[in-house]
Amino acid sequence: MTSQKQYRMENDTLGNIMVPTTAYYGAQTQRAVENFPISGIVLPREFIKAQGIIKAAASSVNVELGTLKPELGAAIKQAAEEVIEGKWDAHFVVDVYQAGAGTSQNMNANEVIAKRATEIIGASEQIHPNDHVNMSQSTNDTFPSALHIAASENLKQELLPAIGRLHEELQKKADTFMPVLKAGRTHLHDGVPMRLGQEFSGYAETIHMIYQQLEHNLQALYEIGLGGNAIGTSVNLQPGYIPKIIEEVRRRTNLPFRQPSNMFAFMQNMSEPIRCMLTLKELAIHLIKITSDLRLLSSGPRTGLAEITLPAVQPGSTIMPGKVNPAILEMTHMVCSQIIGYETAIATAGMASQLEINVMMPMIAHTFLHSINLLTNAIDTLTTKCISGIHVNEEICKKWMEASLSLVTGLSPTLGYDMASQIGMKADEEYKTIKDILKDQGLFTEENQQAIDPKGMV
């Protein structure tokens, strides 16, 4: 039998409920804990921080507008700032898969801040989670705004810098490898010669274009609908509340948040997380392509292409001594596969927008923020533990290039496509180089020699 000393009695509009004595949350959070024992996953630190930012900003503005007593506002603000710092994270306990739209998550924040603020102010007055902490707010405007704030901070401070470092490292490799000639490949078959640096420059520019697209997405995420309240009509607000709270959020984050161009569109849809997630999906697709290329180019080392060597980070086999696998590239591919699945999950949840709100916001918030964190960690690891340590095997690049049947392409202007094709096919059949066949057929002139010189074809 559970000791009564471990619990206290709380109540809400549905009646009484037992809450752990040490918990800073109250009745509505406890109901959510009991109703949704689903995953054991809660929304991440950055989302809780964003909730604290909103609650602190609202308390300041409500005091300024005269709707909240200064002593209550000061206590709420202090408690909310402790939430921002992470002091009460252990008391944010609502599962990601919770009641629609995030009402339980909002009440979790309201209750924790109310209890802590009551402690701060003392026994003189009870601070109410709805009447005081949630004043001038609704779950429906604060939850998507908290998501935009959290995602904007993570994109600006974490993911974009990680992508920038990856682009910089790929560009360094492109510059370093530019003198190295190699065989190009299309359809995984011989292609005309190219420079290894050109191949890497393609990777670098692809990542740079994604960086630019995410910067564009970030500008859209700076729209926050605080003050929209239940459905966008700004019910129960004092005049001037919206610009003041947005300015307060701007001050606290040092990011250029602004009012939505249309409050109702903001409330009805999860448009910006959906659009940004599409960019993250594209990033994942490109990373899979790049890492797959690097796995092919480093394959071997004796039975593959082996044009480049990856840094060895761990043993690759429990049975084959000395084997080293492209572990970092494989990890990146796994993360990117997860991101592609996450984009589908968010797109599906986006379809749940009905009439004035989207009720799948908690799942969207978890999935979107987790995607940003996963990609940040994977990209930083890819950059530091793989890309920065890649070395070229110039002799192997030269060997494959000289053996490539695609050198015959240089003969088309002088011998014609059909004759050049016959030379290429004969070289393949006899397992000889193009140069050998030209010599066999008495066609190895100075002009034709220059035509198949890889340096002249790049």
From TrEMBL:
E.C. no: 4.3.1.1
GO BP terms in the entry: aspartate metabolic process; tricarboxylic acid cycle
Domain of life from the UniProt record: Bacteria
Domain Fumarase C C-terminal positions: 407-458
Keyword Lyase: yes
GO molecular function: aspartate ammonia-lyase activity
Gene3D superfamilies: Fumarase/aspartase (C-terminal domain) (1.10.40.30), Fumarase/aspartase (Central domain) (1.20.200.10), Fumarase/aspartase (N-terminal domain) (1.10.275.10)
InterPro entries on file: Aspartate_Ammonia-Lyase, Fumarase/histidase_N, Fumarase_C_C, Fumarate_lyase_CS, Fumarate_lyase_fam, Fumarate_lyase_N, L-Aspartase-like
All copies of domain Fumarate lyase N-terminal, residue ranges: 15-341
SUPFAM superfamilies: L-aspartase-like (SSF48557)
Entry protein name: Aspartate ammonia-lyase
Lineage of the organism: Bacteria, Bacillati, Bacillota, Bacilli, Bacillales
